[in-house]
Amino acid sequence: MATLVDPNFRARLAALGDKYAAGIPATLQAINAALSLCRNADADAAALEKLHALLHGVAGSAATFGYAAFGAEARRLEQELLPLLGKRPDELTGWAALAAQVERYLAWAARDPKAPVFEA
Questions:
Q1: In this structure, is residue 6 part of a structural domain?
Q2: 55, part of any domain
Q3: DSSP character for 58?
């Protein structure tokens, strides 16, 4: 049986990669906004869910476009957040430390999201 080959596959994948790269600043802004919302005194459980969802999105797509460390660190952070879902940030022990980790991730990603290794 012959395998179907899309002659434009590489070009379309490169275009998607360019689109992904162009969207990274907006993604970082969205994560930062969600983190800020979680730090508000009146933050509810939905704030953590939003932060988790954004990190989950990066974790699931970044490596596809050559951003392995960017995605891997997002995966680690979203896994840290997973057991906290359904709670208010101000009720959580260790929330400040986790929020600081997200902040370091954002600072690193703003410098070079395609860096091969996450360095806080």
A1: no
A2: yes
A3: H
Instruction: Name residues whose C-beta falls within 8 Å of residue 95's C-beta, 6 or more positions apart in sequence.
Output: 38, 84, 89
Find all residues with CB under 8 Å of 32, minimum gap 6, and list them: 106
Q: What is the per-residue pLDDT across 39-67, written as a single tens digit (0 to 9) for each? A: 988 888 899 999 999 999 999 999 999 99
Contacts of 27 (CB under 8 A, 6+ apart): 54, 57, 58
| DSSP assignment letter at 35 | H
Q: Residue 57 has which token pair?
A: 């999105």
41: buried, middle or exposed (CB in 10 Å: 19+, 13-18, 0-12)?
A: exposed
What's the distance, CA 113 to chain centroid? 11
pTM as predicted: 0.90
66 is in which domain, residue-wise?
Answer: 42-120
Residue 14 lies in a domain: no
Residue 6's pLDDT is 77
Split into its structural domains, the chain has a count of 1
Exposed, middle or buried: residue 92 (CB in 10 Å: 0-12, 13-18, 19+)? middle
- Whether 16 maps to a domain, the answer reads no
